[in-house]
Amino acid sequence: MSSQTPPTTASLRADGRRPDELRDVRITRGWLDAAEGSVLVEFGRTRVLCAASFTEGVPRWRQGSGEGWVTAEYAMLPRATSTRSQRESVKGRVGGRTHEISRLIGRSLRAVIDVAALGENTIVLDCDVLQADGGTRTAAITGAYVALADAVAWGTAAGHVQPRRSKPVLTDSVAAVSVGIIDGRPVLDLPYTEDVRAETDMNVVVTGSGDFVEVQGTAEGAPFGRGELDALLDLAVAGTARLRDIQAEALARPLERLP
């Protein structure tokens, strides 16, 4: 018998989760036929398609360095939300939010890849939000890592990558999760209904070994204290550890293309 007191109705969130509980997370590999790595990642009702494209060669500024390159592009489909948004390609410019999230995903992935071991090859991660219900950037990072791992495996099997035993291409895993303060208490993995009313909102990127890659935190109302920051970071580390395990389980399964 557990010595823990079961959560009361008052302690549960609107969707029935505990404050420290992730939404239902699913990672489906091999979503696309043509991409060297592809994943549909679902955080509750947030769904992001991550495709990894492996190409030989690197951008001109990196040629001759012996090192590869990993970058990312993020976009949201017009009806990913409750109202239609215009495609940025039609507008003729990419918005600042899109640029910022694309760079965040790229930084997060480059934190766990040895570009020297990758060789002069490029992997581009396209992360397209099919449906948005909060946490699109954190879901994108979590899914993009799995797509990246499959692309590296593809490049290795094809002979484009020559990994050495002492120098693996992927040095660690990486995942991300949102945390925030809702009604005065820290909670994990915010859906849209919580995100829009959070007193403090934070996105945290953590490696599989528990090191921080990036922390993006903002007080939407009153400033938050050091104790609240520590509580949020503790939640994020625990949440990303569970995401790490989900990623590992997905990668351990045989890769089967969808029919």
Walk me through what this model shows.
- The chain has 259 residues and is of the alpha+beta class.
- The protein has helices at residues 88-91, 96-110, 115-118, 136-157, 192-195, 226-252, and strands at 25-29, 37-43, 46-56, 69-76, 121-131, 174-182, 185-188, 200-207, 212-219.
- The relative contact order is 0.17.
- Helix 2 (96-110) packs across helix 4 and helix 4 runs parallel beside helix 6 (226-252).
- The strands form 2 sheets. A 5-stranded mixed β-sheet has the order 1-2-3-5-4. Strands 7-6-8-9 form a 4-stranded antiparallel β-sheet, with helices on both faces.
- The protein contains 6 helices and 9 strands; from the N terminus they run E-E-E-E-H-H-H-E-H-E-E-H-E-E-H.
Estimate the helix proportion, in percent: 25-40%
Largest sheet: 5 strands, mixed
Q: Please, what is the average pLDDT? A: 91
Structural class per helix/strand content?
Answer: alpha+beta
Strand order of the largest sheet: 1-2-3-5-4
**Beta-strand residue fraction:** 25-35%
Order of SSEs: EEEEHHHEHEEHEEH
Q: What is the rounded distance between the termini?
A: 45 Å
Integer-rounded radius of gyration? 19 Å
How many helices? 6
- Uncertain regions: pLDDT < 50 for 5+ in a row? 1-9
Annotation, overall tally of beta strands: 9
What would you call the quaternary organization? Answer: single chain
The global form is globular
Keywords:
259 residues; alpha+beta; 5-stranded mixed beta sheet; 4-stranded antiparallel beta sheet; 27% strand; globular; disordered N terminus
